Amino acid sequence: MAERDGSTPLYGIAIAAELAEVPEPTLRLYERRGLLAPFRSDGGTRRYSEDDIQRLRRVAALRDAGVNLMGIGKVLDLEDENSELKDENRQLRRTLDDER
């Protein structure tokens, strides 16, 4: 059996909502607003990964801190960009270390 990582789509919307402690309609709203993009099966069923659940929890934390949905989107975009830059930096450092 193949190993799963955090991006493996596992959960239907009801389970994802329960795990993230968010009502199902709120998950649909977040998707419409571009705050998350769950995997869609060929039949259109949403499937959420562990990464999606963590993102939902981050959205909830920002919302609880008083950030509106537009602001949450901007924060998430910046966090995603920062994470990508950190990954690129790590890879460049490894390449430089290998060349020495």
Automatic annotation (TrEMBL):
HTH merR-type domain segment(s): 10-78
Pfam families, alphabetized: MerR_1 (PF13411)
Record keyword Translocase present: no
PROSITE patterns per record: HTH_MERR_2
The organism's place on the tree of life at top rank: Bacteria
Keywords attached to this entry: DNA-binding
UniProt signal peptide: none
Protein name stated in the entry: MerR family transcriptional regulator
